[in-house]
């Protein structure tokens, strides 16, 4: 293929050289008087060509700017349609317009020679980039969180601002192009008129016409030869690039015969380029299915047959010349000429051996981690369950000893007995909490529709004594029906409300308010209090088991309450987080799945 290109290049050079000598032989024959007229005519023609080329370039710039604006509108239309409907097919205008915007902007770069226009184009590129980020953000919010958050972003008019600036920039550029076009059209008209006059004067002399023709022919031949050389250089550069990339690249003609075979393809298949070129691609590059070792179709052949891109991602392996099987991603695509005729195909092979090895290792480690977590949960459950009996054997006699002999021994003995009873009581509370923590996720209680208001009422009933003692006020808005386990949700509310009451402010009565709002297929709950608040650096730490921010003397507890809340929420497929201002209060947020067909209570 390279020798054919060299021969064609040499032929173009010889043809251009012969034509130049032939045309140059006739030039000295023309008299000195005709030479001046011919020079004027040539100058007029060149100037006319340049002027009209400038006008055409201005038209291309104007059309290109309008195309950019149209693509931006298409992308915005697709985004708005998706936000409103939530249907992926409404994103089609957005998906098609996105890659075309950058290509259209790139086409405008060589057409703009004015530095001010180039600066405006870069400004327009930045505005459209920001607009695309806004479109992507809204689509992602709509996909994850639903219509209302996406609509809220749109209503901020951020995207409209970017589009307004982009339209203004395009309008400014178009106005500049229009002014330049008027000037160039006037210049072209003037040049055209001058060329007509010169043509009329030159037309009287046949020799001048011949001289002009010869001159133009020489320029044409020289340009054609230069264009041919440039084309061959570009093809050579493309071949060097394809030969050096990290994937195997194979090209075929319309009959499926291999015309290009780079080094990586040679390594993967075991075939040398010299042996492979000219042979059918499906005879050199063979694929088999991993499940039954049957022959899989060659993507390049299928791509030419069906005139579409064909991918082999998983379930197939490349079989080399020596029988070696290599896991690859294979992509075949047909190639067409400028008139749409099929001229061949391109097959790209990407070795996925290392990636699949890494995926297997990751899967193995994930399974090991899951087994380890299960064993730890089982250990915590067994340990906390089996510790209760010996603890009762210790705590019972201690409490009996305290009741029977309190005041009969000296003060030190009473103090020691009190410490022992208090320690046993705290140990009993810790074991109970640890047992509750380990039970979440272990039991096979089925999830069902649960009235969250009923779960909250049960939690408040369990906290009735402490609510009465502290004078705490707990209110709630209408609460929904969620998909969950009733006892665990009651325990979740009980721990959050108890936590709010425990960490109440000394200068005001505790107030707790529970609210819920729908976000997509979930309900987002909030439990807000007016307590002492939490400093931001501790937002994550408080959900870790046994982590405390205060001493037991200040606030009693085991450090398991919020860890248990997080475990319950995550067991239900949700997440929990908080917002807090130190000294003003804390709001805990958590999400729970919506019960199918349920309405707000």
Topology, pairings included?
Layout: H1 2-26, H2 32-85, H3 92-108, H4 115-145, H5 147-155, H6 158-203, H7 206-244, E1 248-253, E2 258-261, H8 263-269, H9 273-276, H10 281-284, E3 286-289, E4 295-296, H11 299-306, E5 310-312, E6 316-319, E7 325-336, E8 342-351, H12 353-405, H13 411-439, E9 448-451, H14 452-462, H15 464-470, E10 473-476, E11 481-484, H16 486-502, E12 511-519, E13 522-529, H17 561-571, E14 576-581, E15 585-593
Parallel strand pairs: 10-12
Antiparallel strand pairs: 1-2, 1-8, 3-4, 3-6, 5-7, 6-7, 7-8, 9-11, 12-13, 13-15, 14-15
Helix pairs in contact: 1-7, 2-3, 2-4, 2-6, 2-7, 3-4, 4-5, 4-6, 12-13, 14-16, 16-17
Summarize the structure.
With 601 residues, this protein is α+β, with helices and mostly antiparallel strands. The protein has helices spanning 2-26, 32-85, 92-108, 115-145, 147-155, 158-203, 206-244, 263-269, 273-276, 281-284, 299-306, 353-405, 411-439, 452-462, 464-470, 486-502, 561-571, and strands spanning 248-253, 258-261, 286-289, 295-296, 310-312, 316-319, 325-336, 342-351, 448-451, 473-476, 481-484, 511-519, 522-529, 576-581, 585-593. The strands form three sheets. Strands 1, 2, 3, 4, 5, 6, 7 and 8 form an eight-stranded antiparallel β-sheet that branches. Strands 10-12-13-15-14 form a five-stranded mixed β-sheet. A two-stranded antiparallel ribbon has the order 9-11.
